[in-house]
Amino acid sequence: MKAASREALATSQTTLDSVLYGGDAVADFARTGLDLFEVVEVLDGDRELRGALKDPAASADARKALVNTLFGSKVSDRALRVLEDVVTHQWSSARDLVNGLVNLGRRALLRGAEAQGQLGQVEDELFRLSRILDREGELTQLLTDRTAESARKRGLLANVLYGKVTMFTEALALQTIARPEHNPIDDIAGLASQAAELQGRSIAYVTSAGALNDNQQQALADKLGKIYGRAMSIHSEVDESILGGMIIRVGDEVIDGSTAGKIARMRTAMSK
Would strands 253-256 and 232-238 be described as parallel, antiparallel, or unpaired? Predict the structure, then answer.
């Protein structure tokens, strides 16, 4: 997003939080997020409408009136208030406006998980799902099939998730599959990162030769937090091929303390 869109999104995020926490029912958080996704689906299929809602030649009041006419009777009051706020801002492009609504829909669901005391759990479930998709190539291929209808792909993933994750994780994952940005693995991992950010954390991706217990993960999070100067979430997976130790990735930085990595470096040094 360009600067104007980033500013518009930041302002709308503040509005969304205010609207959500002005109520007292967690169900309202979920309803707001799902309603925003419904609006996104409409806008995805109507280029002219996308342009009208972003049109700088129209007054903010005119754009708000258009939102009320089209969606006033179809979405919740909270979702409508967010939509009204979104269209009053200047976005760099109509596509940025739609992507902003996607961000806000996801944020509403994550805020709902937070209000329910499940945000950390949702973060972990999303990460685990991204790892499952990474391992299950056939499932991921089905979810990325361009010839398959979105409803069919959502149904397939819903069957996989049913009864195994929170309602927030399921809703977020299904929305992401229906409207892919990159690929299912990266898109869902990105949601986990967004959940971590709402908790004021960055993510450290850890690959170890054996499973880390809770105490080991907490100790590692504390150590990395001191190194990077911010709270950390540990997303760990097991890969026996590294033989021992661990590989840690934070952003673009990789710390390879694995036995396999050490052996490879020794071989390189000896060959010189």
Answer: unpaired
